[in-house]
Known about the structure:
By secondary structure, this protein is α/β, with parallel strands linked by helices.
Amino acid sequence: GGKGRKIKEVSPWPWTTMGLRDVARDRLLAEMVEGSVKDLPENEWTLLVVDETTTKVLSSVCSVSHLVEKRVSLVENIQKKRQPMPNMTVIYFISPTQGSVSRLLADFHSKSPLYKRACVFFSSQLPKHELERIKQSPTLLSRLAALKELNLEFLAIDSRGFTTAGSREETLKDLFGENANSSGSYEREMDVVVRRLASVFASLKELPAIRFRMGKPPQDGDPAGASERHLISQRIAVALHAELTNMRQKMASNDSFPKAETCDLVIVDRGVDPVAPFMHEWTYECMCFDILDDVIDNNIFKYTIDTNKGSEEEREVVLGEQDPIWVELRHKHIAEASLLLNDKMNYFKSANKLARHKANQGDQSDIDTGDLKQMVESLPQYREQLKRLSLHVHIATKLNTMAKQMGLHEIGKLEQDLVYGNATSKEVIKLLGARSHMKEEDKVRLLMTYVATHPEKLDNNRRMQWMKLAKLSAEDMNMINNLEYLGVAVSKRGAKSALSFATKRKKRSIRKEHSALEGEEQWQLSRFQPIVYDIFEDMLKGELSQDEYPYVIQPTGGGAVGKRTQMIDVELSVRKKKNVRRETTRGVEGRPVVLFIVGGMTRSELRVAHQLSNQFSSNLLIGATSIDSPNTFLKNVNSMSLLDDL
């Protein structure tokens, strides 16, 4: 077609100006806390009782200071013994499980209730049988100030990312592992994913047109249970549609849920891109959560600094959106981030030197009293900024040093060459032979990249060759083989039929290369983009194939919201159009797009949602059952099947 154009700014949905984390925080503080304390005397405080699930939800969006500002004096765990406070009104934010409901009922035992009044909020829909149990407690009913389904059970990672992380956080094993469908945790995990995903849309007050990735039919040689695994995205999509329909009927009276689709949701499983989780990424955030994974816990980075007194001091800092320097650096290539930090540090030093010089010289010609006052007032802020800047200089230096020590540039180049078809097993064997001190995880990740991009290349001879050359254990090889459970044909299949010999072998599909986004440089080792880039891009262009990504139910109005709005017509990358006829859908301009990955997502996929949102003024969100560092992903893949006893 004609020359592409950028999508114009659209009138934003309320949540898009706030971000996902802000929406969740606002609901917890406004709907739940403020709604509960509004009738209390001004000097009266309340306390908040939570369970294991809601503790995670709460801590992903709220700090203690947020709660204190709203007159919450204490947060207590429902599972622990608590001090009776018979004169206090208490807020319960709990999940609607049998265990949490039982503990709620025990708190209001007829003889000695713990609290005067209770405002009870459930994180997701309360089953009828649990509601019946509550109705049978006259003591609780007489003290009940509120009983509501808040429908907020997801964890916000940042303004555009979320997870439905279950209590076990073993989704890969529970849904895709060798014994998945025969274990009781399969159905439980599916229910948790659906319930928590529904709570995202309830919080955003959006109704999605739901699509899912059609799994490829099982092939000869696939591990047992392949037919079940390839239906997982479809099952979740269908169950979610039913859950949202039920939710919409419940909320019809207060008119808080749309009647027609307002956004698009695409559900895929980890098999859509089995390479992304173990690729070495070169942007700041991805490197932090890969190379420094052992010193970052729950987004808190722990480090030691040398003080002026010659001693060492332990420090910890949260890596998140409350830090403007983190926001500026997180999606930049490490080389660009390092340059930017140097520039900032030099600017700070020179500005500070000039101010000190003028003060020492008593030079008042350029500095008046107002300026001086302003400088003094900004000193604490200056110190805070300098502290943050020093922290990021410390992190970037550590990342660069460790990448050099680990030989990651060489490994990273080979990984990208394998993905884009510029390297074969010869180069892999050469590198493994030359770098005998390579970390075991890096060897496994490199071999996984090879098998995921070169199907059916592994037989027993090559297995033994790799184990010997790379000094890998049988467990390491089993981990590589477990990619079979994500749809990768790792091992050579049996003899083909006479018919298949007659057909030409299809050339291995190599993923698209993307040029740098507007305003960004194409740095070395930044060729790789996860497949979610293409899915978001196709959704924005209205070109996502309906054969590969069917709807659960065709959206009303053919995909448009209300009146027919202008369609997207935008060239999102400099790539040739494919000469393939396929049924496609047209996207609706400005309509939010949510992508959900069953089996976990990567920081690189989260980055894509941010970058494409900014580049095309679009409202993109990405969610998954978890967000995993490469090391966590390796552990999860390892758990999918146990090594047979030899």
